[in-house]
Amino acid sequence: MTHLRNVLAIQPGQPASDGAGVRLNRVIGGGGIERFDPFLMLDEFSTENADDYIAGFPPHPHRGFETITYMLEGRMRHEDHLGNVGLLQGGDVQWMTAARGIIHSEMPEQEQGAMRGFQIWLNLPAESKMANPDYRDIEAAQIPRVRLGNGAEVVVIAGRFAEGEMVQSGAVQRPHTAPYLLDLHLPACSTLSPTLPDGHRVLLYVYQGEAHVQHSHAVKAGRLVRLDDQGSVHLSSETGARVLLLAGKPLNEPIVQYGPFVMNSREEIEQAMRDFRDGTFA
C-alpha cells in the first residue's frame, strides 16, 4: 500500500485583473512558478456582476505554452488570427496550443448573468515551443463523466481517472507533460482516491465547499493544495465540495516569462517581442 503524498503548501489565490479589466482570482502565477512546473498559471473567474467581466480579453498574443479554458457557467467567444472561432458555454473546454504564436481574443457573449470558470497555462517543452499552433473546442457532451457508487462524480477532461478497478480516459491526452485535469464533485459524506503517476506534480484547488485532503487537512474554497510527487491522494468532504485536480509531469527546464510569452531564455523572450512588434510573430 502506497503512502499518502505529503502536503507541501496550502495557499489562497490573490485578487487580480487581466485583459481589459476582468476581475479574477489568480491561484498560480507570478514569482516562483517553478514550484508548479509544468503549470504556469491558474485563474478562476467567478462573478454574477457583468462589470467584472464585460470588457473581456481583446486581441493579445501567446507564445511557448498551452492554454486551457474550462467554462462552468456563461458564454465566451474565442477568435484568433488563424481564423478559428468558437463559443464556450457551461461545461465546455477550449484547448489551445499557442506554440510559436497565436493572437486571439476571448470576449463574453452575454451582458448579464454568471460567468464562471478557469483558465490554465500549461508549459511546453523547449522542443515544442516553436511548433505549429493548434486549437480545439471540446463540448461538454464530449467530455467523459464518471459517477461512482457513493454519489461522487468526476469530469475527466485530460489524462484519466482511475480508482480501484474504474479507469476512464479523458477527452485530451498530451505528450511530454502528460497532464491530468479532473473536476471532482464530492457530495456530503463522500470520498475519492484518484490514482496518479508517481513523479507527477499534483495540485488541488477547492473551488466550492470544504474538503479534507490527505485525511488531516481541512481546506476551504479558494485555496490551493500542493502535494509532493510520490504516493497516493485521498479526498473527502463532510458537507460537499468541488475540487479541480491538476497533475502533470515536470519539464525541469528553465522558465523565463514576460507577460504572454513563456520561453527558456531571455534571448528567446526578446525574439518573441521583436517578432510581435515587427508583425512576424506567428
Structural class comes to mainly beta
Amount of helix:
under 10%
The residue ranges in which pLDDT falls below 50 over 5 or more consecutive positions are none
Q: Which outline best applies?
A: globular
Radius of gyration: 18 Å
N-to-C terminal Cα separation, in Å? 49 Å
- In CATH terms, what is the architecture? Sandwich
The CATH top-level class label: Mainly Beta
- Biggest sheet architecture: 10 strands, antiparallel
Count of all domains: 1
Give a description of the structure.
This protein is 5% helix and 51% strand. The chain has 282 residues and is mainly β. It has a single domain, classed as Jelly Rolls. The strands form 5 sheets. Strands 1, 13, 14, 17, 18, 19, 20, 21, 22 and 23 form a 10-stranded antiparallel sheet that branches. The chain has a 7-stranded antiparallel sheet with strand order 2-3-4-11-6-9-12, with no helix packed on it. It has a 4-stranded antiparallel sheet with strand order 5-10-7-8, with no helix packed on it. A hairpin with a 4-residue loop joins strand 7 and strand 8 (85-88). It is globular and about 55 Å long.
